[in-house]
What we know:
The complex is a heterodimer.
Chain A: E1 3-5, E2 10-14, E3 19-21, E4 24-26, E5 32-38, E6 45-49, E7 60-61, E8 72-74, E9 83-90, E10 98-99, E11 103-108
Parallel strand pairs in A: 2-11
Antiparallel strand pairs in A: 1-4, 3-8, 5-6, 5-9, 7-8, 9-10, 9-11
Chain B: E1 4-7, E2 10-13, E3 19-25, E4 31-37, E5 43-50, E6 56-57, E7 68-72, E8 75-80, E9 89-97, E10 105-108, E11 112-116
Parallel strand pairs in B: 2-11
Antiparallel strand pairs in B: 1-3, 3-8, 4-5, 4-9, 5-6, 7-8, 9-10, 9-11
Amino acid sequence: AQRVTQPEKLLSVFKGAPVELKCNYSYSGSPELFWYVQYSRQRLQLLLRHISRESIKGFTADLNKGETSFHLKKPFAQEEDSAMYYCALNSNSGYALNFGKGTSLLVTP
Amino acid sequence: SAVISQKPSRDICQRGTSLTIQCQVDSQVTMMFWYRQQPGQSLTLIATANQGSEATYESGFVIDKFPISRPNLTFSTLTVSNMSPEDSSIYLCSVEEDGGGATDTQYFGPGTRLTVL
Lengths: 109, 117
């Protein structure tokens, strides 16, 4: 069975500090992993796809199959990064996403 | 990415009534999904709605309670029937865009915030 675990419900960091939002998954096949972000009063939007190996808004995430993790990282957090972050897994195209419970990131000045 | 709109954006309803939520996409998409996000919770899939076939419901969700229509490749509706306060949630539709050989990606509508009194 697929499962996505985000162990931290809330993460609070100071502006300029590094941030890491943890995501672990369980899936027997080759997963497709995503990070979605929801800013206050805005819709859920895609932040990163693991296959793209891109950096968006300074965030990166590397798929570690050995540790079954897809942690989201940013070296210097900004106040505008405060939002709800969801890690999601897709077992295959055409299937719905399996979401973690989300981590609320609060960046304080 | 596809532009997705939902109507209504929010509603307050009396228990026992029904509400139909519309999802409109600005491009033709095969895969559409309906999710529910209860207060303080993550997103849970209700059903997959593909054009030309019956919707496929997840465990815990039934067609009598959440009937879905998918008349064409740009539109879908979700009805929440015989509502109770436990149905108070945000309901979101999403579409999957063809990645053209790369990862297909899902994009979400703005959601419909439903409160049942």
